[in-house]
Amino acid sequence: MGEETGTDRRGGAVTCGIIGCLVVPLAVVGVVAAVGVRSGEYVSSPEVDGRVVWRSEAPEDGTEPSDLVGSWVMDGLIVRVDVNGLFGYAADDGAVRWSMPTEDGLCAMSEETSEGVGVVMVRSDASYSASEGPAHGTDRPCDTAVGVDLRNGERLWTRRHLLGEGVTEKEPMESHPAVAGSSVVVAVVGELVALDLHSGRTRWERGGFEVEGTGARRCPVGDVRARDGETVVAVADCGIGTGPLGVRLIDAEEGRETGAFRVERPETRQEAGQYSTVLATDPIVLGVMTDLSDVEIAGFDDDGTRRFVVDGANLRPDSVRGTTFSDNRPDTLVENGLLWVVENSGDCTSTVFGYDLRSGEKEREVEGSPAGQVRVVAVEDDRLILMARGKEAICFSTRAPQLYTAPVSGGELEPLSPPLEEPDIGPAVEDAALIWRDHRIHVLPSNAYGPGAVAIG
């Protein structure tokens, strides 16, 4: 199979070898979008005219899609990763090729896959001591890993209670699995557990990391992301208002550290359990939580030398990475050495900038962004694809969501699709996963009270 892609609620499209990966935020495979513009308005083309080509049917086992977690894209197959399970749809006609229900509630997924295998996390039957968990108000930890053959939906292995029963004594945190070669490294409730990708056997375990200046013995691991087939990048963060955070480069197979550094952040009077995230790994780019309403994007060499800082004054925390299923899709995308960031102004407009990952210089600027919030969808054929989100209450916008495009080199934004007002898609498009394939927009609604996938031609 060729190179494939995947994305989760963290967002950021990634590409990883044989089958590929899902975040930041979304997948694009082999598209040529013909756009016609007349007097600044969209003109229908054979590629994108807004008509529904197909809607997926319910699987034979009766499992209905629910809240979206993310997606993977393979040759001829689109996989919806959902709270209720996994659904494999044929890209050409939407037929359900396979489904894999998860009776305990799916809560996370790996962005990366290897040799056709992806990893999802489901909630255990244990309960936190705390009264509220990290998503949907659940009190069940996201601590059970499942390996899945994405070509046929076969469950290869299941590892329950990765940290044992002691997980119930910890504070609720999100879990993140990262596939690197033949290993999957899971950040689960602040600790790291590495498993063999094909058998689920434990390879190594470790708790959080010591971070000088925090006053804590160890800080929990808030995020982990694969750099390549051998190394993962993990960030340990004791939370807002607790001082610096720590970054570790770790050999995924053996668990030994190959690099480490500390990141300072501005002091704040606030203290909260919101944790910094890894946006890119080469160079290392972090979304550093500075307070409850601010996030700073910073790039580093492996020795901790700070390359650049993107001022977070106009970035919402959930625009860098959603912290629960209800958050909006992320507004960042790493592609071809550029970090695309949407900066929101107070006058209900957004500007899209492309920052060079090596220097941090602002290399690109997209002009003419529509009123209301927008998010970066993908880069394809030297074109940047964005979606303007409708129904922004603060901007009093009631228009339907609409796709736009602009040259990667910068320039004017032009409409790519008509307003997406199809009743069977509707407002669920705003936070949906959007996948370009075979001259079609494949939409995976964020809340599937209806079809789990829709193709628009």
From TrEMBL:
What's a Pfam family this protein contains? PQQ_2
Chain segments annotated as transmembrane: 12-37
Residue ranges of the Pyrrolo-quinoline quinone repeat domain?
A: 147-384
Listed A to Z, the keywords are: Membrane, Transmembrane, Transmembrane helix
| Keyword field contains Mitochondrion | no
Q: Which PANTHER family match?
A: CELL SURFACE PROTEIN (PTHR34512), OUTER MEMBRANE PROTEIN ASSEMBLY FACTOR BAMB (PTHR34512:SF30)
State the name under which the record lists this protein: Pyrrolo-quinoline quinone repeat domain-containing protein
Task: List the taxonomic lineage.
Answer: Bacteria, Bacillati, Actinomycetota, Actinomycetes, Streptosporangiales
